[in-house]
Amino acid sequence: MRVVVALPSTVEDALLAPLMAARHEIVARPAGSAELESVIAGLRPEAVLVHAVPRLLDATVVDAADRMGTRVIAFASLPVELSLVAELGLHEVSTMNASWEEVSALLVGDAIIPDAVSVTRPAGRVVTVWGPTGAPGRTTAAVGIAVEMVRAGRRVALVDADSYGGAVAPMLGLLDEAPGFAAACRLAGSDGLDLAQLDRIGIPVPVPGGRLAVLTGLTRPSRWTELSADRVGRALEVMRDWVDVIVVDVGFSLESDEEIMSDVLAPRRNAATLTALERADRVVAVGSADAVSLARLLRGHAELLDIVPAERVDVVVNRLRRSSVGFDARGQITSALTRFGGVVPDAILPFDPAGCDAALVQAKPLAAAAPRSSLRHALARYVQGSLLPSLEPTVAARPEAMSEPKRRRRALALR
């Protein structure tokens, strides 16, 4: 049997010898989904053994396999890997530590694959990035968090919901005249938003480790009425079925002007911010490391806790530098937040003007423009060590009647 192998080196090393001993021919060992798609179309192998991560396995690979009659055997153990398998509708699945006998049974078709069991894809998580007035680095943090999520193997959408002045598009070099999130909200308001529409609206941005889907913000602040609370809420709920993580960049103001409005049904300027905070599974509150910004962060944090429970809020201090704080800057920042606000920061990010300038000049994420940046490494540690574990869903099996044995549900790939 002609076989393509696209697995982690440890798993691949364990399988190469028994594959060859069983007289299977290994025709290719691709390193990415585009290469794997090309190999399937060009070599027409009978089977593909592939690790279930977006870097290797996506809808285009499954489409190519369907056209060529190639069987796709996915290797998955982690919840996010099982989630991708469920999204793609694949039913020939092996665990990463499966024995050769189990893998061989899948290859030759002797394994029993129950039609009554499938994997439930967990709903996507919403991470809302907020910060007080004064430009503390909300958008830089939101873009960095989204990219690190992609690097961790998640399918991620970055949403610019700032009704005062969205900055995601210019930061990433997207000169889009049609604001994507406003379009999604309009469709959601008329019950016309679905996954196909999100695929159309979302702009795919290549980033280290994969692709990021971006829904750009308002081109003019005067269009804030398009981001009503109901529309924003509906759009975010639909997006939970689209990707694994939705990172939302919102405005600074937490004011609710209901008490001074004569028409309680009228749109409100801060509706998008308040709704994104209320719907968030995790809120990242960003403030700068100087006396003025910390005072603003503490005042805003108290207001934030009226909207979001404290256990769902992470406090991230940005732009740490000795010149603005003094000796033992990190210790002083932690002491001040704890003493005056009862807040322990979840992450303290260094000031890295050179890296941020490189990202702005190149219109690329920090991880692409300055991969060795101290800020990029600090963001990666926060995402991997704190944020992702707090979002990790539980994936469970549930009974589901299958209409046909080889049914494959198309993945909503970020193209």
With strands numbered from the N-terminus, the spatial order across the biggest sheet is 9-10-8-11-7-12-13-14
Count of beta strands: 15
Number of domains: 2
Contiguous helical run count: 17
Envelope shape = globular
Q: Main beta sheet: strand number and arrangement?
A: 8 strands, mixed
The parts where pLDDT drops under 50 for at least 5 residues are 114-119, 394-415
- The second-level CATH architecture of the largest domain is 3-Layer(aba) Sandwich
- What is the H level of CATH, i.e. the homologous superfamily of the largest domain? P-loop containing nucleotide triphosphate hydrolases
Assign the structural class, choosing from mainly alpha, mainly beta, alpha/beta, alpha+beta, or little secondary structure: alpha/beta
- Integer-rounded radius of gyration: 23 Å
For this structure, the CATH topology of the largest domain is Rossmann fold
Architecture blueprint of SSEs:
Blueprint: E1 2-6, H1 9-21, E2 25-28, H2 33-43, E3 47-51, H3 59-68, E4 71-75, H4 79-88, E5 93-94, H5 100-108, E6 117-119, E7 125-130, H6 138-151, E8 156-161, H7 168-171, H8 180-189, H9 195-201, E9 203-207, E10 210-215, H10 229-239, E11 245-250, H11 271-278, E12 282-288, H12 291-304, E13 313-320, H13 322-325, H14 329-341, E14 347-350, H15 353-362, H16 366-369, H17 374-391, E15 397-399
Parallel strand pairs: 1-2, 1-3, 3-4, 4-5, 7-11, 7-12, 8-10, 8-11, 12-13, 13-14
Antiparallel strand pairs: 6-15, 9-10
